[in-house]
Amino acid sequence: MGFIVVRGTGERIDVGKIVAAGQNYADHTKEMGARPSKTPILFLKPATSIIHQGEPIVFPSAGALLHHEVELGVVVARDCKDVAAAQAEGVMFGYLLALDLTLRDLQADAKRKGHPWSIAKGFDCSCPVSEVVPLGRSSVLDDMEIGLRVNGEVRQNATTADMLWGPAELLSIASGFFTLERGDILLTGTPAGVGPLERGDTVDAWLGSELSVRFIVS
Q1: How far apart are alpha carbons 92 and 73 in whole angstroms?
Q2: With helix as H, strand as E and coil as C, how does the chain read?
Q3: Spatial CA neighbour of 207 closest among 1, 7, 2
Q4: Domains of the chain
Q5: Which of 23, 35, 27, 20 is nearest to 158 (CA)?
């Protein structure tokens, strides 16, 4: 089972599942050539996809086009179901920085065939994460700079204010479909600028002034 680590205490929290939102930034939807959705696009990544700083991103043997997607992740504090957006803050334990790595060629092929994206999104090492920062008030998540560099070149740079659905609303919607459990992670989508990674690349990502991570692709 995958786990996450709380900053400051070193507490390890088991992760049951990762619920991810697609196309939650308008500029990313546009760059993917997709039509805007009236509701969030939700999919799952297994907890076994998690890796931590110091561990390599192992380029998967399946697929040839590995893309980076930097994201804000929200960690669930307790088991919950059908949470109202106004009460979502009460079930947020904290937040983290994550990469939703994607095998874009396999995803595109799956889309053409009308097949699920599971392999393209859920492979081992596809969810590098930072430590978890305990949350005071959820309003701190409303306007945080988020970005990513590859080999020193800025690829993604935006703010969480650009989200179509904010963290509280996403958590509310997701909890209507899935029972959320303590330690589950909600990934909130990626801004524009996604692109390819190659073996040997150095990936640096940041979220506000609190979090930064570095991973090496091997």
Answers
A1: 11
A2: CCEEEECCCCCEEECCEEEEEECCEHHHHHHCCCCCCCCCEEEEEEHHHEEECCCCECCCCCCCCEEECEEEEEEECCCECCCCHHHHHHHEEEEEEEECCEEHHHHHHHHHHCCCCHHHHHCCCCEEECCEEECCCHHHHCCCEEEEEECCEEEEEEEHHHECCCHHHHHHHHHHHCCECCCCEEECCCCCCCEEECCCCEEEEEECCCEEEEEEEC
A3: 7
A4: 3-143+161-196 (3.90.850.10)
A5: 27
Q: How confident is residue 26, by pLDDT bands cut at 50, 70 and 90?
A: confident
Mean per-residue pLDDT of the chain: 95
> Does the pLDDT value for residue 34 go beyond 70?
no
Residue 217 has pLDDT above 80, yes or no: yes
Res. 110: pLDDT tops 70: yes
8 Å CB contact between 178 and 17 = yes
Residue 96 CA to residue 187 CA, distance in Å, equals 9
Q: Which amino acid is at 167?
A: P
pLDDT in tens, 116-142: 999 999 999 999 999 999 998 888 999
Amino acid at residue number 7: R
